Amino acid sequence: MATEAAHTEVPGGQKGTFPPFDPSTFASQLVWLAIAFVLFYVLMSRLALPRIRDIIENRDKTISGNLAEAQNLKSQSDDAVAAYEKALADARNRAQAIANETRQKQAAEAEKERKALEERLNVRLADADKSIAATKASAMSNVHGIASDAAKSIVERLIGKAPDDKKVDEAVASVLKN
To answer: How buried is residue 172: exposed, middle or buried, by Cβ count under 10 Å (0-12/13-18/19+)?
Structure first.
């Protein structure tokens, strides 16, 4: 087995310094650097930079247009919210007015019904008072007769003789008047 050492040299390769670092080629390198710089500068200033400038301007226009549209939509949204809130407040006010009106109507109807009920009760009370007065008068007329009969019976038992009807009626009438 043969052992060979690893190396990085290429057989028949170039001997000497690296060409960009060779001082004898500095002048030509500087000339080519200037030509390449001018060529890249012209290409960039004439082709690439105007395109980039147009792209940036278009983006700025698009962004400013979008911002203007967003501001417009925001103002429309604010107007819609204000209109909604106004409509909501109006609806609340109408609902409150309707509720107050309904409450007043119901109170008026209840008052009307209460008065009608009071009138019916007053009529019934008057009728009851008349009935009571008639019953009382009837009872009082019966009381006179009952009192006369009772007085006659008591006097008859006490004295053994029936008293005069006229005198008993006069005595009962005088007592009942007081």
So the answer is: buried
